[in-house]
Amino acid sequence: MIQGVGHIGIFVEDIETSLEGICRLLGAQVPPVKDNQDWQMKVALVEAGPVQLELVEDYGKTSWIADLVKERGTHIHHFCLISDDLDKDIATLEARGVKMKMEAPIVGLRGKRIIFSEPETNGGIPVELSEP
Known about the structure:
2,3-Dihydroxybiphenyl 1,2-Dioxygenase, domain 1
């Protein structure tokens, strides 16, 4: 069952600069940056009340994320819904006509199983589903 919004995904040009700015705004401590060398991406989670802000920098510059940042600059990309039964929720959403961007869930940057839906089936809004 979908439990609510877990995080808002923000794709950034420079994670250190973006973290400094958002943490100053929130009065929060700068969190550690995790470097996923396999994906050539850095990720950091900023606590913002009940919802986290997930900042992602693609330093490999070869993925679709890098293409979006090159085109749009730093920007809010998606929100993530937390699911306590990812496979069941995928089946439920697909039965409602929501299409998934991938054939099956993958392990994301935070080490959780995730899947993205096709934005066109959500009124143009990118949505990620993730295990807690």
